[in-house]
Every structure is written in structure tokens, then in C-alpha cells.
Write the C-alpha cells for this entry.
Amino acid sequence: MPLHSIRVLDLSRLLPGPYCSMLLADFGAEVIKIEEPNIGDYAREGLPKIDGVSALFHSLNRNKKSICLNLKAAEDKEQFLKLVKDSDVVIESFRPGVMERLGLDYETLKEINPGLIYCAITGYGQDGPYADLPGHDVNYISYAGLLNMMGKRNGEPQIPATQIADIGGGSYPAAVGILLALFEREKTGIGQMVDISMMDGAISWMPTFLPNYLASEEQQKRGELDLSGKLASYAVYETKDQKWLSVGALEPKFWSEFCKTIGTEDFIHKLREPIDVQEQMKEEIQRILLQKTSAEWMETFQKVNACVSPVQSFEEMVDDPQVKARGMIQEISDSEFGTVRHIGIPIKLSDTPGKIRSVAPMLGEHTEEVLGE
């Protein structure tokens, strides 16, 4: 596998760091999850549970090993330093200064292993006036200005259902940063620090509208972005059976097909009209789409290219033929846990694909094995 020779020491907990190390583990890296004795990753708690461990923890920590070390204890700290000598990557998600107080910061560890890649995932980064502040996803997207743009026109900001800053602004940039640093190490033999700020990452998620403000210094309003509530051609509409359809008919050819299909040909030339016209079109489109069920409309729209899709529940999604064809829900058999369903691997490599090889480890399951080496 692409990362089969890479050893990762993962000190992180909860979501951003474990998601990052999961991406690496899925492609062959040996990820050793270092957990506090008796407590472990807080994500182990929560409902529902699979044999005493949360489904969330299982999802994030597949393909990994778990060892228990108390990094405040001299003996365990020494064991950790021995592991660092033979490792390629350290991932941590403590607030800035914590690892330095433990005597395990990057400047210390690189003296032991000059080729070490040290990745710190924090809310606000290693410097700046917010560096020491606590926070969660909602705080990072708030400071970034992203939350202010989410929601309906004249309504309150709407918190997204998934953690944009944690995953999109933290986990994925961290994984990319680690891989870039490993690539550079191939040329120089020297490692480096990867400083990931989830607030930075959230800011980078706005390339379709933040540049407009930077160029004009005019703030667009919530619900008035083309792709976030303004356009009738890019919206969700309810159907007769209390389900929903998403319409993404942004281009003239798709919008034309959509309008012809529902009998609103007079809307075709109004694709980019001002927002008051868009609202009027939405009302009429909604009135029409309420006349049939979601399935009836999808049967009609499957005959044309109009970018219309059903808004699926999880039950519908896991049974979707495209999801099945792409292997995005996988069943893993384990002698202890039985069958566990996992989210599949979204990165598809033709020759060296990722693989779910094992379920999440029990707390400290591999302590003797790893330290015995």
C-alpha cells in the first residue's frame, strides 16, 4: 500500500486528528493511537455503542493500533521518545504550549529524529492572538465569516449538519500537509512541522464568494449568494409526499430543460434575474412540484438532463445503486465485534487502493506488542 512503511504516532482525540490519521491508515500507514490509561479517547463514549465502544470511535479509528501511555510520567514519556526515534509522523491536537510543557514539542522531538514530520491541528494555529483560545467547529466557522453566510435570506445563521472546520479545514489539510512534508523529506531527509489551523481551513473554503468581497469590499448577504439560496435554479423544493428535490440547473442548457419539463418556459430567460424575480419563480416552481410525489418527479426528470436529485435519507442513501457501486458503505467482519458497517474510502487509486483491514482497537490493545518491539 502507498504508506505501508510509514509509522504515525497519533496523540489526538475526538474528530479532526483521528480523521486525519484514519486517512493515512486506510492507505497502509501503521497508526499507533496513544491514549491516556483508563480514560482513552473521549470519542469512545457516546451512543450508539458497538460492544461497549461508540460507533463514532469505530468509524474514526479503524486500521489503527492502541497503546496506553501517561505522558506526564517519566517512564511512559521515555517510552514515547523511543517510539519517536523510529517513527515518521507525530499528530497532536492539544492547544499550543501543552506539548512544550510536557517536553515533547517539535523542537525537542526533532533533535531525537531530524526526519520527523510533526503535525499540530488546532483551532486557531500556533500563533496569533487567538492561539490559546478554546473552541469548536461552530466557533472556527464563526470567526472565519462562513457561518454568517449560511442560512435563509433574512433569517438567522444556520449551523451546518457536518463539521466543516474540523474535517474540511482540519483533517484534510493536515493529511495533505503531512504527505507534502513526507515528499519533501524524500529529497532532503529532513522533516518539518505542519501547523494546521481549523479557522484558516474554514476561510479557505470560501473561494466562490470571499474573493468578491476582497475585490469590491461589498458584503453579500446571507441567502443572497448564487449557490446558497438566491437562485431558483439552485434550490430545494418540497414534493407532494413531504419529500424534497434538489435542483442544480445552473447552466442555461439545464435550466431550459428544467423549465420545459415543469411547464414554465417563460422562466428560461430569467436564469440570472435579480433576487425579487428569483423569489417569485421559486414560489411558482414550488406550487408546481407539490402536485406530484418525489418518485413521480424523478421518473420524469430521469428522461432529461436537468440536474434534479432526490434529497435522500440515510436509509435511502445506503441502498442507492451509486453508493453501492462505489463501495461507500462497507461491512467489516470481526471475530469479537461481529459485522460492523463503515463509511467507505473516498479516494480511489487504480493500483494501490486503500482498504479497511481491521476494526477500531480496544483501549491499550497493542501496548505490549508495540512497546515490546
